[in-house]
Amino acid sequence: xxxxxxxxxxxxxxxxxxxxxxxxxxxxxxxxxxxxxxxxxxxxxxxxxxxxxxxxxxxxxxxxxxxxxxxxxxxxxxxxxxxxxxxxxxxxxxxxxxxxxxxxxxxxxxxxxxxxxxxxxxxxxxxxxxxxxxxxxxxxxxxxxxxxxxxxxxxxxxxxxxxxxxxxxxxxxxxxxxxxxxxxxxxxxxxxxxxxxxxxxxxxxxxxxxxxxxxxxxxxxxxxxxxxxxxxxxxxxxxxxxxxxxxxxxxxxxxxxxxxxxxxxxxxxxxxxxxxxxxxxxxxxxxxxxxxxxxxxxxxxxxxxxxxxxxxxxxxxxxxxxxxxxxxxxxxxxxxxxxxxxxxxxxxxxxxxxxxxxxxxxxxxxxxxxxxxxxxxxxxxxxxxxxxxxxxxxxxxxxxxxxxxxxxxxxxxxxxxxxxxxxxxxxxxxxxxxxxxxxxxxxxxxxxxxxxxxxxxxxxxxxxxxxxxxxxxxxxxxxxxxxxxxxxxxxxxxxxxxxxxxxxxxxxxxxxxxxxxxxxxxxxxxxxxxxxxxxxxxxxxxxxxxxxxxxxxxxxxxxxxxxxxxxxxxxxxxxxxxxxxxxxxxxxxxxxxxxxxxxxxxxxxxxxxxxxxxxxxxxxxxxxxxxxxxxxxxxxxxxxxxxxxxxxxxxxxxxxxxxxxxx
Length: 663
Prior knowledge:
The chain is of the alpha+beta class. 33% of the residues lie in helices and 20% in strands. The strands form 5 sheets. Strands 5-4-3-6-2-1-7-8 form an 8-stranded mixed beta sheet. A hairpin with a 5-residue loop joins strand 1 and strand 2. Helix 2 packs parallel to helix 6 and helix 16 crosses helix 21. The longest helix has 19 residues. About 18% of the residues have low confidence.
């Protein structure tokens, strides 16, 4: 049996350093956080070979007193806290006193520092935890750390480092998040003598987002602000059009600290659920200011994880903030027509920025007030109001059956209303009274780029023209293309609407509203549908019978293992009710531990998808008009329940560029 022995201090320090210092980015993180705690408003980080051979971090903070410099490199020596109770109100990013001792244990470190009250600064050398020298030196106020040869004395750790390019990438990501978390500080990041990041420190978060992520993201942001007595949330979230395939663009900071939290991530993604396709993730840059009494940050050596005293409260607050922010903004993605040839023909020209609709000014005459509809029906006859009402209420039939044929026995009178007359309008090559326009020179791109970068948050949904009640009287339904997409002209824009996604969204929202209001619509079956269920399916049916009833099913025992379904939700009538009902039961069997409300919502989305009119199904213009009107009255008309977009748009300006009317 081997003897138990106490490790020497040098070995202890090297082992402990591995908890804090994993790679060069860990060193940069700890030293930049120390600079922020020292009150610096300008911080420069310079690295070479990915930070493996050289790191220099300079700040203009308050510096370290010469007499305290050796003390700063001792383990658990800190000026941030003095007793454990201080953790409840700690405002600094660091507080354990482990960073400098851990860095010095595995690197060659040179420190130059000077405080405002001293004429001379101090230069201090320490390698592998051993002091090598200390002397006076002329220096500006602040602190400079030079760290060389990381893990030079622990080759077992050094061999696990990645390539210099990869390590530099980790540091670059870190510096971008540091800049987002502290817009009041001017950051500069230099890699191999090339400046990769430089922020102004003007406190404008949107400027930093523009500098890091570019114009496309900066022009598609929604501002968020919500607060209560313990928590405030400020920052920006991206419109669904700038979604990504991973969570790398989800940035959130608590009291200035970049962290990872499953609670916050779930709240953000749940808030986006009905606005974004599955397996897509949003862009966020959110600042949380949280009372230290409801927060525990002393959980992980890197302080990347924390605990909330009331995680559910934090979830609900952020979820509703995201949901409300997205629900009250226009989310119609705009199509940009790119002309690759023009880049070579006119290299000095830059493409003007695509300005979102709330900021786009009317540059030409207003469109005609009259509203005409194109009749897509072969016979050229308008359907009756009864048929339109039936289509909107019940959805489409199975393959080969028109909504009118399926719904005739169940039609109900619609409230009196007016419907615009249909006229087939065939545009000529030139409009009467209008001379052929000369090509127009594109406006200055610099102004448009600046406008896109600093655009103010979009207005409330009902203040936007296409989504207002007035627009319903002014937009012009042009027609249908590919048997699936409807074209609408409004205010110098062309809107393209997917009839399947739009109808699916309308049916889903209508069913959800009926559930909330306890208004259930059922369609009787004659004869009833008889199902033979297994023992497990019987148990599931009994457990979820209340939910099936709320959706509009009427189910009763029929003897033995058979059950009679005498009524189904009105939206399901005419499609494969048996298969869909069994599919719902199977889904409940596969995921028995899921939250019931979430599971039922998914099944309603599935019902809506199957009941909605399909692509390549010929709808009349009047049916499409009724569908579009109901779609635009929804709180979120932009995406179907599965996250696919229902509407996209293209500006007249983009089309004129394509036809060379603007050069």
